[in-house]
Amino acid sequence: VNLVGILHGDFDRVHVQFPKLVAELCAANNTPRLLHMSALNADVNGPSAYLQSRGKGEAAVRTALGEVVGAVAGTKTALTVFRPSVVFGAEDNFLNFFGKLLRIFPIIPLGSPNAQFQPIWVEDVAREIAESASNTATFGQSYNLCGPEVYSLKQLLQFVAATLGKPRFIFGLGAGLSNLQAAVFEHLPGKLITRDNVKSMSLPNIDSAPFPAVFGFTPSALTSIVPTYLGVHKERVSGSMRYQNLRNHAGRE
User: Fold this and answer.
1) Which of 138, 177, 216, 234 can bridge 132 by disulfide, Cβ–Cβ 3.0-4.6 Å?
2) Which of 148, 146, 127, 147 is nearest to 138 (CA)?
3) What pLDDT does residue 244 have?
4) Three-state DSSP class for 26?
5) Eight-state DSSP code of residue 95
């Protein structure tokens, strides 16, 4: 299961050369299954280096495997590709990062405020990957993974602010100022956002098609999950840690 990915850095090395090597090793060792995580809108002709590298990575994997759709496990490496929208969860660097900003700053200048996302819960993604491992119906297939709700970036920040109980003034920046903001931030420690990220967000990170029926369940709504872990006080954090410990001891880590 290849989950390696970055939002900035050496895209070719991480998204193309590494998965190509993984696929070559799988083929050489007759590994029956390879589950490859890509990204929604992956395209060799995409608007950003990130999306282009994701598209090139998928192509490199397929070439390395000499993929045949519907290949039977045991006769060659059967590939399944997953293309999620933004993934959220208790320890994500997405909504939690927004939470940190909203706790500190009363005013948020937001680049690309109208960028669209269809967030999917990390545990739903994990379930899809696990169920695909032995499900022959998924062999040779590619799946877009999206949650049930579409949000703009500004709406996501507003939701986080409401969940935290910290109303903030969030004003969206136009295209020019969004790029200028990214040009400054990409040179700061941590690279909060880059101009390449802005290019990626120029495409709606959504999929209007129904959630893949092969998985047999409906993904959880962001609004039903995020309030259980975001914006908690110390008492609630302590409680959630105790809950996580119970889950771990129950074998559900």
Assistant:
1) 138
2) 127
3) 59
4) helix
5) H
